[in-house]
Write a structure and sequence with these properties.
The complex is a heterodimer of chains A (258) and B (137). Chain A is an alpha+beta fold and 258 residues long. Chain A is 39% helix and 24% strand. Chain A contains 7 helices and 9 strands. In chain A, the strands form 2 sheets. In chain A, strands 1, 2, 3, 4 and 5 form a 5-stranded antiparallel sheet that branches. A 4-stranded antiparallel sheet of chain A has the order 7-8-6-9. In chain A, a hairpin with a 2-residue loop joins strand 2 (40-44) and strand 3 (47-55). Chain A is elongated, with a radius of gyration of 24 Å. Helices cover 53% and strands 5% of the residues of chain B. In chain B, strands 1-2 form a two-stranded antiparallel sheet. With 137 residues, chain B is mainly α. Classes of the chains: A alpha+beta (258), B mainly alpha (137). Strand 9 of chain A pairs parallel with strand 2 (8-11) of chain B, so a sheet runs across the interface.
């Protein structure tokens, strides 16, 4: 991270990226988060944790660390089913990884790996184009009327009318968002084993959703996503990322261990 | 990395930092007590990026967006303009929307060296103290 190379060896801890079945364990040749250690594997029983050394007390994370974390998990996911760990997971040493993760949570990890087997995550986010406001004006007479009233008039004099106008638009957008989200999900949900719909990130967002899809169904899912985008091409811009490690489909199972 | 296949903007992995944050932060299996890497600055920015939808600011922005339209004059859907849009990567640049704004601020933080970035992040926090969702340090 910083340009200075440490003059004394800092004491090291173990950064953990994710867990795979020992039989699938990839050999990843890459620098780890923090830039100090190479990626390596820690195995116990039938499970392998993908880890790297990291300075103990390492607290500063930048964009490159996020990208390393992501890239390493993506590489693992090429050949293995991966349970990704939360970004920033640092255990005191390899023994702790073995005892407190691979052994203590072996049955949970087994279950997760079985449920995720052969599956990847696809991320789909939709954002309304600016012309969506035209749709709102066309559909909502009250919005159209209020718009006529404030257009070209002094901003201060129309302050409360503009707030009211914006509120009506916001309500109409919320209804559209709900409707469009339902439409998209109706089309894609049947092709996925699980769906996670995230919070709306921004005022023109339509949806931010992750789909757990079996690799065998990827082409079909892909076509359906393309159709959804084509149907909405004038009004919604869709971004589609994947195949990804199943970040969104392991979190709900966090247990009371530790 | 991003390819335009039909109408979907595709990429093998999230292409903007905002999407990376959205995808990775707060996701993944948690081993209690062991999430040790502090991401204070970054987490703050993701909160900043999540503009609270129902605010007066949003209403005024929406009102402005509606007023900017020339619907009666041009019709809501103008095909040549739409094609041009696609060529240019869409509505980007037309409005300084919240996503663009948030990306800018994230870029701010990561473009300089780290200390600089942290300083910006914390001064940003102070300057936003009158707005929504201000968590305590």
């Amino acid at each position: 991270m910083s340009g200075e190379s440490p003059s004394r060896a800092p004491s090291m801890a173990t950064y953990v990226y994710g867990v795979v079945r020992a039989g699938d364990a990839p050999n990843i040749d890459a620098a780890g988060v923090g830039g100090h250690g190479r990626v390596r594997n820690v195995s116990d029983g039938g499970l392998t944790a993908i880890v790297s050394d990291v300075e103990e007390g390492f607290v500063e994370a930048g964009r490159e660390d996020l990208e390393r974390h992501m890239a390493i998990l993506e590489q693992a996911a090429l050949s293995a089913t991966v349970v990704p760990l939360r970004f920033g997971t640092v255990m005191p040493d390899d023994d702790a990884v073995t005892a407190e993760l691979l052994r203590a949570r072996a049955s949970e990890l087994d279950e997760l790996l079985a449920a995720l087997d052969g599956r990847v995550e696809l991320s789909l986010t939709g954002t309304y184009e600016e012309r969506i406001f035209g749709e709102v004006v066309d559909e909502q007479p009250e919005v159209a009327a209020l718009r006529q009233r404030v257009r070209g008039r002094d901003e201060n004099a129309t302050y409360y009318d503009r707030i009211r106008l914006g509120e009506l638009v916001a309500n109409a957008m919320a209804a559209k968002r709900q409707h469009d989200t339902e439409q998209v999900l109706a089309k894609l949900r049947p092709l996925a084993d699980d769906v996670h719909v995230g919070d709306v990130a921004h005022e023109r967002s339509v949806l931010s959703a992750s789909f757990l899809v079996h690799r065998d169904r990827l082409p079909e899912f892909d076509r359906a996503a393309e159709e959804v985008a084509a149907e909405n091409r004038t009004r919604i811009r869709f971004r589609y990322a994947g195949p990804l490690p199943p970040y969104d489909f392991v979190g709900g199972k966090a247990g009371p261990w530790g | 990395m991003t390819t335009e296949g039909g109408f979907l903007q595709r990429s093998p992995h999230p292409s903007s930092l905002y999407d990376v944050l959205d995808l990775i932060l707060d996701k993944g299996l948690v081993i209690d007590l062991y999430v040790r890497v502090s991401l204070v600055g970054i987490e703050l920015l993701t909160i900043d990026a999540r503009i609270v939808v129902a605010s007066v600011d949003t209403y005024l922005r929406f009102a402005e967006a509606v007023n900017r339209l020339d619907i009666a004059e041009t019709g809501a859907k103008d095909l040549p303009e739409f094609i041009e849009d696609l060529g240019q990567g869409g509505g980007r640049g037309k409005t300084k929307g919240a996503i663009e704004g948030a990306k800018d601020s994230i870029k701010d933080v990561f473009s300089g060296d780290e200390d600089d970035g942290k300083e910006k992040a914390s001064s940003r926090r102070r300057s936003r103290s009158s707005s929504s969702k201000d968590d305590e340090e």
